[in-house]
Amino acid sequence: MARVTVAADVAAADLESYQRAVRLLLRHPLITARHPTPAALAQVTRWADQLTTDFRAFLGYGVRITGEHARLTRVFDTLDPTQWLRGGRGADRRFDRRRIAYLCLILASLHRSRVEISLADLVRRLAADAAAIGGLGFDPLLRAHRAAVVDAVDWLAARGALRVSDGSSESWARDPERGDALYDIDHDVCGALFKPARPLQHLASVADLLHAGGRTGEERVDGPARLRQARRALVERPVVYDAEVGPAIAQALRHPAELAAVRRFTGVRAEVRAEGVLLVDSTGDFSDTAFPGRGGAVNRAAGLLLAKFAELREEGWAKERLHWVAHPSGAGAHADLVARIDRAAPAAAEADPGREAPAGAAEAPGGDAAGEVLFVPDHTLAEMVDALYAEFGPESFTDTWRADPAGLRGAALGLLARLRLVEPGPGGVLVLPAAARYRNITQALPGRADGDPQAMLDFHAGPEEDL
Asked: How far is CA 297 from CA 392, 461, 462, in A?
């Protein structure tokens, strides 16, 4: 099978610069003169032709690079709950459904606007549009609604779609009657932000947003298409488990030539394990979540919980004393996610009532089970966190969490789930195979020469404090 040669015209001395541009585009699909940094656009435009060629041939992604912005257009083979929209002033927080809805409505309103708009006018349009959507709405008297508007507007401003020329969103949020802001609109950036492959009103299922309509037939796993699907899984997911992608994709991922090509493309090496493959980011600029790291209490508590999970396995407990369950593949979870999203779609959005769901829309590659994994029930998780508080003292977990062990437990498990190290379920979590690579994580946590265990809890405020 003919394989794609990436960076074919890149000299050895320039390869690292090219790989930084690849990682930059994968992490920030829209790059402008202001976002993510003033220097980022120049890093990408240097390699415009090579990046356009390689992304299309290697991953099946589209790239458009101009003097004003660079836009990576992804295609997805399955829905991915680990990829979040983030924003919020002073924090790297996850956008909730209200913020995402407001962002979409505001962006639609900007498309209908001229060259500038006031925040008050924008909010009036938003209120009318939101009122027409059941369960959404906008109430200027509610602080949470105003905060959601500010986060959406600031997200657009950070990317250059809006540029404030007078006033501020904070003044409006404090007093909508007196405060206001005036924005210049960059319609090129707005157009780059929202470019759906298909008109949304024509979608019969959320699966229609996926590559080939979510179909998983043989045309998706043969030849070049199979390789591109394997590469997409590897660069988009924290961990690619064999059982989630099926034998054909798993075999493609493990081919030495394919792993070498991914490393030449991204500059990041792949780690092949018995249960799957993951990319290990030693560059520090590829992943949006550093782990393990010197982040806040959530990051550190997550690492200590992994150590606790390892103790359950390695302290000589008899297998029958632990909870071992068959780990289902991604097929069932993906089908459930598609069905739940489709059930939430407004009735008016159903394009063809008589049309059947796309073939394979509720399916994902993989078998029925992927061996047995450890199940840790909620009461055991609570005991683990209580033991950490008893060992290190509540004051070690920062003011945010010192009196909230349950909240810290939930935030830490949420981080591990996003990293695909655990999988939440009814009554507890499944400890996924990749968690085993962190079985000696306490040796990587900060510690003093005198072996003071308190040094492991040398927390400082980090972005995850606001989860």
From this structure: 12, 8, 8
Residues 64, 98, single domain; the answer is no
Task: Say yes or no: 313 and 462 in one domain.
Answer: yes
Burial 178-217 (b: 16+ CB within 10 A, else e): ebbbebebbeebbebbeeeeeeeeebbbbbbbbbbbbbbe
Q: Which positions ≥6 away from 141 have C-beta within 8 Å?
A: none
Q: Is residue 354 part of a domain?
A: no
Residue pLDDT tens, the chain, 467 long:
557 899 999 999 999 999 999 999 999 999 999 899 999 999 999 999 999 999 999 999 999 999 999 999 998 888 887 778 887 654 457 899 899 999 999 999 998 888 999 999 999 999 999 999 988 999 999 999 999 999 999 999 999 999 999 999 999 999 999 999 999 999 999 999 987 777 777 888 888 888 865 554 444 445 788 889 999 999 998 889 888 888 888 898 899 999 999 999 999 999 998 889 999 888 888 887 878 766 688 988 999 999 999 888 776 554 556 787 876 665 567 788 888 888 877 654 444 433 343 333 333 333 334 478 889 999 999 999 999 999 989 988 888 899 999 999 999 999 999 899 999 988 999 999 999 888 888 755 444 334 444 444 443 333 333 32
Which of 143, 169, 193 is the last residue in one of the domains?
Answer: 193
3-state class percentages of the chain: helix first, strand second, coil last, to nearest 5: 50, 15, 35
Identify the domain containing residue 114 by its residue range: 86-193
Same domain, 317 and 401: yes
Of 104, 97, 119, nearest to 175 by C-alpha is 119
Asked whether the beta carbons of 397 and 457 are under 8 A apart, the reply is yes
Q: What span, in angstroms and rounded, lies between the C-alpha atoms of 318 and 339? A: 39
396, part of any domain: yes
pTM: 0.82
Of 165, 193, 221, which marks where a domain is finished?
A: 193
User: First-to-last CA distance in the chain?
Assistant: 46
| CA 110-113-119 angle, 5° bins | 65
